[in-house]
Amino acid sequence: MVISLSVLVLLLVLAWIFLRGGGLKLSHALVCVLLGFYLASSSLAQTIHNGVSATANVVSGFKP
To answer: 3-state secondary structure string, the chain?
Structure first.
């Protein structure tokens, strides 16, 4: 759950920056949100979750 919340916050911050910077319009953001909901209910959801978890594990293994 911590990884999911971290990714959610990161995506929210990026969306806010894009909206404020003019690179993303509100209609584009809504389409992205709808795409996320449809992906979450599709059969690809588990594959996406596993990929994000694996990437987070690799990144957390790096030593500075």
So the answer is: CHHHHHHHHHHHHHHHHHHHHCCCCHHHHHHHHHHHHHHHCCCCHHHHHHHHHHHHHHHHCCCC
The pTM score is 0.55
Residue 25 sits at φ, ψ, to 5 deg, of -90, 160
Residue 11: HSE in the Cβ half-sphere, 13 Å Cα cutoff: 10
d(CA 64, CA 57): 15
The mean per-residue pLDDT over the stretch 12-31 comes to 79
Question: Are the CB atoms for 24 and 15 separated by under 8 Å?
Answer: yes
